Structures are given as structure tokens and as C-alpha cells.
Amino acid sequence: MNELKNRYEFVILFDVENGNPNGDPDAGNMPRVDVESNLGIVTDVCLKRKIRNYVEIIKQGKEKYNIVIKNDEALNTKFAAAYDALNLQKNQKGKNKEDVKKACAYMCENYYDVRTFGCVMNTGDDLCGIVRGPVQLNFARSIDPIFPQELTITRQALTTEKDIKEKENTMGKKNIVPYGLYRAEGYVSALLANKTGFNDADLSLLWEAIENMFEHDHSSLRGKLCMRKLIIFKHQSELGNAPSHKVFESVKINKLIEGPARQYSDYEVVINDVPQNVEVEIR
Prior knowledge:
The chain is built from 8 helices and 14 strands. The chain is α+β, with helices and mostly antiparallel strands.
């Protein structure tokens, strides 16, 4: 597969309607907000989880497209499996540096999320090193302040026989954002990609996963989450041709109405003043 020859930045625009895009466990699972501005927040971890889930669904365990960060078995067990696959001596706690390098290369080659996002694999007895991932994401923030609502719901299906005898139903809570348009920004480093083995095919899969990351993640809790636009900036060189903040500043989202927005058409997306030697692709 071809190595990356270009640096990239990208902007993700997605919205939520009557749902919770990212609950905050420190606030009773209410939608995350910036307490000073009341802008909504979706963490990078949340977005990466959706990308990982899409890759796992599409590739279905295909060789070289495994996912290491998931709730199936302990990470240390996966690191030990790398040593087994390479016939390396185990339980050395990283004393053999060459073995650690070999195990690290194995993890990059066989796990899509390791060579994409990086991973700290220096735990347990069979160390696999630390990988700096070429793809990084910032927190997503809403364009305008959001106003989370806590809705009371009734539950008809009771749990115990005692509940059935004593109650007609029980009460519950559902936390939603009526509407919010969110923007996230990300980076792809060609220099780091060529160290982890992240190639053109992996990059194409990344764009596909971002475009479809909500399509297999629907639930009543999340409401209507929609990917609205993926804006990709391709530099003409590996090092890049402009600072990333200048690239991101070329994308502006303007509100078209007075009062609270309730749909994507209440905004317009304007792209202008793109730095020289940077191409734009809109999906």
C-alpha cells in the first residue's frame, strides 16, 4: 500500500435532534456542556469510539483490521498474544528492547486503531511500546449554546413481583438536547503515518468511517444524530503548507435565523480564504 505523501486537516459537522450525543457521568449523564459558555461538548474519545465501531462492523475481524480498544478481553492479554504470534520470550517487562520494537510493529500492522490513533501499550509483563497516532481529533463543540432538558418518562414493565403488586409503573429520566449543530476538527500527520504503517487505504477507510459513524450507532438515548458534512484539507507536502489554525479558520458557520435553531438548514457553511497549496474536498 502507498505511504501518505500529504498532510491533512479535516472538519466534521454533525447535529443532534432530541437526543444526547455524549452524556457526562459527572452530571447525571446530562449532555456535556462548557459551563462558562454553555456550548455543547462531544469528546474525542466518543468520536473515536464510533469510528472504531464502524471499522469493526465493516471489516468483521478481517486481518490487519482488528480493534484493540474494545470491551472483550484485557489489554495485557492482547499484548501477550503479540509475543506469542512472534515467538518472543514473554514476561520480560520490556528488558529486551528489540522484542518490544517487534511487538509494537506487530500491533501497528494488525490493529487499525493502533496505527491510526496510537496507543500506550506499556503495561503488564509483555510490553509493546508507545505509538503516537497520526490521526488526532479535538473535542467537538456546538456552534451555539445548547439547553439540555431532563424529561420524566414512565416505565410500564416492572422488575419484581413486589413492584407489580405495589405499583402501576415507575418513573425514569431522559436527557436530551432539542437541537445542536456540532463542529469537530482533526489532523492527519503523514510523517507519523509512515512510522505506524497508516497508508492510503487506511485513510480512505477513515473518511468512510467518519461519514457513516452514526449510521450503526442509533439508539433512543442518542436521538437523531446525523453526519452533515466532512471537509477535508489536503496539503501539497508531508510537512504541510499552512498552519492548521489558518486552515480551520477558513470554515465559518453562520446562523440564518433569529431565535433557537432547530434544523441544519438554519445554518450556512462558508469556506473561503483557504491557504495556498491546500486543496479542499467536501463530502
